[in-house]
Amino acid sequence: MNVTWKDKDYKNWQYPRPVPYEMLKLWHTTEVIRKKYPHIWRLGGTKTADRAYKILTKAVKRGYFDGTEKITMGNSKNAKENKRVYFIPQWQAWMARHAHDYRAAGVVAHLKWLSIPAIGWAAAYSVLLQEFSKPVSDFKPKKRNAKTKKTTR
Questions:
Q1: d(CA 52, CA 91)
Q2: Residue 42 belongs to some domain of the structure
Q3: Is the dihedral of CA 44, 46, 50, 51 positive or negative?
Q4: What range defines the domain where residue 98 resides?
Q5: In 42-86, where does DSSP find H-type helix?
Q6: What are the 10-residue block averages of pLDDT along the chain, 153 residues in total?
Q7: Residue 110 falls within a domain, yes or no?
Q8: What is the value of pTM for the model shown?
Q9: What's the rounded Cα separation, in Å, for the pair 14 and 50?
């Protein structure tokens, strides 16, 4: 059976669903980037992307998706505004929405969601290579403005 994680018809997925080999390879590459280049890792994604990465890491280590994974959507401090939903449909929707992200932050977000952008892995990796060559001092931490509550660089 040819198993791919890009099957759009997640409603017909049968669980437990094995983690595809290409996803395992992508996860290993992502782990190296996450540990070796934390300043680049912080470029992409949101708290939701970090939550998704934790869920995907558990699935990769376990070797299969069990279909019960849920993710908290939303970044609000008010817990009532955040909602827990099944992970797989959200994951598929995110990959469809962000398929054409090609900047460094978008490529890192793709890594956090364990997906490959439409430009392909070779082109995405070349975007990351440009970021690897920059000195760490070029990556300024995000600052939050207390009055407007907006994130700035």
A1: 8
A2: yes
A3: negative
A4: 17-136
A5: 47-62
A6: 51 76 91 90 84 91 86 68 79 86 88 89 89 75 57 55
A7: yes
A8: 0.76
A9: 26
